[in-house]
Design a protein that fits this description.
The complex is a heterodimer. Chain A is mostly beta strands. Chain A contains no helices and eleven strands. In chain A, the strands form two sheets. In chain A, strands 2, 4, 5, 9, 10 and 11 form a six-stranded mixed sheet that branches. In chain A, strands 1-3-8-7-6 form a five-stranded antiparallel sheet, with no helix packed on it. Classes of the chains: A mainly beta, B mainly beta.
Chain lengths: 111, 113
């Protein structure tokens, strides 16, 4: 059974600081996704990583994938308050592409 | 509107009642997924359709749950004899067969009292 673990589960940051969220998964997969969720809202796709060594950046967020280590990272640079949200990583396997999610990382950026 | 839509957005029901949710995927998407998310957790897979065929169901989907996708367009998820443990956000997502990225709808929040 595929398991996805994120850490930390809770992250309180000051504006302007850098930090990294980690996502480990238990079974070989080449496809990993990062989503953002605001309170009471649905999931917004941030990054789709489809191969070993993939790196994608959007604004202050950068995601990378190491399939050999079964690890993805979401790096936050110079955090701002607007980044406060819950961030989920998800992995899929096989041809059905069903997603297995981590528990999420609740990020709070303080002034 | 080109996104995934879900109705209703909120549903409050009494224990033992039946409820039905609807999902309208992005028009050209032939895959449709249902997930359930409880407070403080990540979404969990329930079932998915390719066109009108239901190809996989999670063991989370008890016999009180049924999903359909007639004609391969919109989908419905029905819960019979609701229980308090069914309270959750029910999320629908759609995708193309050839592309793995899923697009999520706004969700239906169910509260069973």
């Amino acid at each position: 059974e595929l398991k996805v673990e994120q850490n930390p589960l809770f992250l309180s940051m000051q504006e302007g600081k850098n930090y990294t969220i980690y996502c480990n998964y238990s079974t070989t997969s080449d496809r990993l996704y990062w989503y953002r969720q605001d309170p009471g809202k649905s999931l917004e796709s941030l990054f789709v990583l489809l191969s070993n060594g993939a790196v994608k950046q959007e604004g202050r967020l950068m995601a990378s994938l190491d399939t050999k280590a079964r690890l993805s990272t979401l790096h936050i640079t110079a955090a701002v308050h607007d980044l406060s949200a819950t961030y989920f990583c998800a992995v899929d396997m096989g041809s059905n592409y069903k997603l297995t999610f981590g528990k999420g990382t609740l990020l709070t950026v303080n002034p | 509107d080109t996104g995934v839509s879900q109705n209703p957005r909120h549903k409050i029901t009494k224990r033992g009642q039946n409820v039905t949710f609807r999902c309208d995927p992005i028009s050209e998407h032939n895959r449709l997924y249902w997930y359930r998310q409880t407070l403080g957790q990540g979404p969990e897979f329930l079932t998915y359709f390719q066109n009108e065929a239901q190809l996989e169901k999670s063991r989370l989907l008890s016999d009180r749950f049924s999903a359909e996708r007639p004609k391969g367009s919109f989908s419905t998820l029905e819960i019979q004899r609701t229980e308090q443990g069914d309270s959750a956000m029910y999320l629908c997502a759609s995708s193309l067969v050839s592309i793995s990225e899923q697009y999520f709808g706004p969700g239906t929040r169910l509260t069973v009292t």
